[in-house]
Amino acid sequence: MALGGGTAAAEPAAPGPLLWSRPGRLGAPRVSGLHLQFGSDASREVVVSWHTTASVARPRVLLGTAHGGFGRTEQARTTTYRDAKSGTEVQVHHARIGGLQPDTDYVYAALHDGAAPELGTVRTAPRGRGAFTFTSFGDQGTPTLGRQTAGGWVNDNLGSPAAGDTTAGVERIAPLFHLVNGDLCYANLSGDRVRTWSDWFENNSRSARHRPWMPAAGNHENELGNGSIGYGAYQAYFSLPEAGADEQLRGLWYAFTAGSVRVISLNNDDVAYQDGGNSYVHGYSGGAQQRWLEAQLAAANADPQIDWIVVCMHQVVISTADKFNGADLGIRETWVPLFDKYGVDLVVCGHEHHYERSQPIRGQQPTDTRTPIPVATDTEVIDTSKGTVHMVIGGGGTSAPSNQLLYSPARCRVITGVGPVDSATGKRPPKYVIEDAPWSAFRDADHSYGFAAFEVDPGVRGGNTSIAVTYYAVTGPYGELLPVDRFRLTRPRGRRGHRV
């Protein structure tokens, strides 16, 4: 059975028992960390990925439907990196599958010679305007104990049991895709970086094999020695939409379209002042990311088929947490003016380990910290054609939550620069300015962990389109969900305003 006009040769449907054959019967490693990514057009292209620490023969994916069986085979391309800390080489196998039908369910099996197939499912996005749901959180870590000490086993990468609970919570919603707002597994803090990445994928594969987990690289994805600027592991594990960047910058920023939503994922270590990773990489792209971002925003804003522009990144423009990371002037100086110019609707971030959101903001006060200006006060129905809503969703599972550190009343600590390297820490200490937070709309001081769900309603021609947003606190080991914050984003359908 041919599916979606693919060009790969068909492989005869395998007999049923193959799917339950004993793993490693030829000594091959198992299919580990199975996960999905969308291509630039989420209605037509997905990538199936898994990893091994040994070479394998003929990595491939069998694709089909629940009723028609497997009728198409796509060969996988293998990407490798060698972890500079352990010397371990990791091989990541990516099967890019194009020519799919929009808004359609598929089944697949990932395998290589000698290994039992691992099964998954995926649904493509609608093409054009259609209803769907996506979710988002950042700052997860792993629920796994990765290092043994004299006192027993400990988690050495800022993880906690909640890192598993949040994944279970996402699966209760079963979104079309999930945005990971940076600081995926904190491998740069771990004694065994390869194991930490493996633990993260093992925890999340129960979700990510059924729906793409689309990441943004955070400061803790920066691992000393892994690639020229530290993101070699991240770049190997994910095969993300092509953005025309140089090879050393591949995958650090990208965009994709799902329905009438254009998602733009950024790596703001490039512009943020804070020294937060294993190495300080401020300005690493030489302005390339900034130029790409403006071109993407201009194109999306001018496209009559795009209603929503959503930016996913790690460090934040707004925060009311004390004694934590703070907002970053570098982002306010470089990217916020572009968000204003081209009418970005929503920005989702992590970095601060709690939940809060802003009023719609547009423009900046003429202060040294460029304080964002709120343009409306309604916290329940928000017209994003007037301003951008920023959401901090950093309760993905880390053992260091910041929800108990919120200023009362709300204030903001802004990083305005860094000092010379501290010989004791090897870091550039941040310089802070405290300012008022007139943009603050909602903060959750009561719950450490959770995620947001976004239900896209395309609306009707001539009317408004909307996104119903719910922030769920995750309150137990089986992903029990407690709605904490509900609001609705709205804007005219098909009339972005073409702000320039």
TrEMBL record:
Keywords: Signal. It comes from the Bacteria. Residues 1-21 are annotated as: Disordered. Residues 8-19 have a biased composition (Low complexity). Residues 33-114 form the Purple acid phosphatase N-terminal domain. InterPro entries: Calcineurin-like_PHP, Metallo-depent_PP-like, PAPs-like, PAPs_N, Purple_acid_Pase-like_N. Residues 176-355 form the Calcineurin-like phosphoesterase domain. This is Metallophosphoesterase family protein. It comes from Kitasatospora cystarginea. The lineage of its organism: Bacteria, Bacillati, Actinomycetota, Actinomycetes, Kitasatosporales.
